[in-house]
Amino acid sequence: MNPAEAPAAPTFSQALGYWLRLGFISFGGPAGQIAIMHQELVEKRRWISERRFLHALNYCMVLPGPEAQQLATYIGWLLHGARGGIAAGALFVLPSLFILIGLSWLYMAYGDVPAVAGVLYGIKPAVVAIVLFAAYRIGNRALRHAALWLIAGGAFLAIFALHLPFPWIVLGAGLLGALGGRLAPGIFAHGGHGPPVDKSFGPAVIDDATPAPAHARFSPPRLVRGALAGLLLMALPYGLLIAWQGAQGLPARMAGFFTAAALVTFGGAYAVLPFVYQAAVEKFGWLSATQMIDGLALGETTPGPLIMVVAFVGFVAGWGTPPPGVDAPFWSGVLGACVATYYTFLPSFLFIFAGAPLVEATHGDLKFTAPLTAITAAVVGVIVNLALFFAWHVFWPAGFAGAFDPFPAAVALAALVALIRYRAGVIPLIAACAAAGVLKTLFLIQP
């Protein structure tokens, strides 16, 4: 590929192959997944320029739902229209869904297995390192000025020390960005994750000045048609579930609940997990507290968004309450996992298809980019808080009142060095840490 020339536009089949591969390697939570996409789509393949990538990312950051999956949907839509967006967004989720269905079945059918416990024991600290490394990479690009560092630090303190809800942090950062865009436009002009303005990876298929394709231009009739199609996709399956088991049947209740959950997932999966826990465990009794924690561990060790833990919740709920006509608990669990996943992610597609044309029309408008720049700086602080929160639970599994576990801390440190110093790949790193966890669990712990 000539670095001085834009690469050829990818065909739909080429893009399809990449989105499928991404669905199997998207470990490390949203920060890691975004870093993987940036490295591949901006730096290596040059399908989209740095600034267009970051502008799309900034929009996805302020939406409820999994931002990395929405970013993949956005870029797929920009490249190949609705079919590209559906393919990118669906393939980001489907591998994780199939893997979690398999793991959930093993969990429910066979219970605790020492080898599986060892795998989880090794992978958890690896995920800590992956998230920390990704936060470092994104923060290195985003925080290009002391003012943005202050916003990131303030966001960290707001969520860590003051426990402010993430939507309030987003609103405050957006207001600061709007004010900063007026008082100091040079600081807020280029997007929250932007590198120095002279940094470039070469011309891209969708470059800074590339006009939006026809399907990406805003049109009120197209917006109305998309909204109606989205409502139909939401209402038709819901109506069928009600017709099958009634509004109080388990599938219909899960559809309604996970739609509501999808609309309050500001701040990523960790922001909504308490909401899911409270409803699924305490209100509906779909699963126990222990099962919810185990499901979270499984979600941490599979590719895809962490919010895919809803598939585990749906599977366990379906396993325990099979509907009429479904004799096998497995198939009842599969139905529950699919309903939970469908209604959790459907709003994400609707947000992209409805809002992205408006966003594409604003990628050079400071009135829009300045608030998003500040919001993304704030999100860096939130990601750091997330990494520390997870590290706390991995290194002190019984809480600070309990003992510090040196093994996961050592694994996380070694993994972080491998990522920063030796640029280790995610898959080999996960495999090595899993092997270390199995070795420690099966052979180095004396009964």
What features would you describe in this structure?
This protein is mainly α and 447 residues long. Helix content is 72%, strand content 0%. The longest helix has 44 residues, at 67-110. The chain is globular.
DSSP strand tally: 0
Total of helices: 16
Kindly estimate the percentage of residues that lie in beta strands according to DSSP.
under 5%
Kindly report the average pLDDT value. Answer: 83
- The secondary structure category is mainly alpha
Distance between the termini: 58 Å
Q: Could you state the order of secondary-structure elements as H and E?
A: HHHHHHHHHHHHHHHH
Chain-wise SSE layout:
Layout (H helix, E strand, L loop, with lengths): L11 H14 L3 H16 L5 H12 L5 H44 L3 H29 L3 H15 L5 H18 L36 H26 L4 H13 L6 H15 L5 H12 L8 H12 L8 H32 L5 H30 L10 H16 L4 H18 L4
Helix pairs in contact: 1-4, 2-4, 2-5, 3-4, 3-13, 3-14, 4-12, 4-13, 5-14, 5-15, 5-16, 6-14, 7-14, 8-9, 8-13, 9-12, 9-13, 11-12, 12-13, 15-16
Highlighted features:
16 helices, 447 residues, 72% helix, mainly alpha
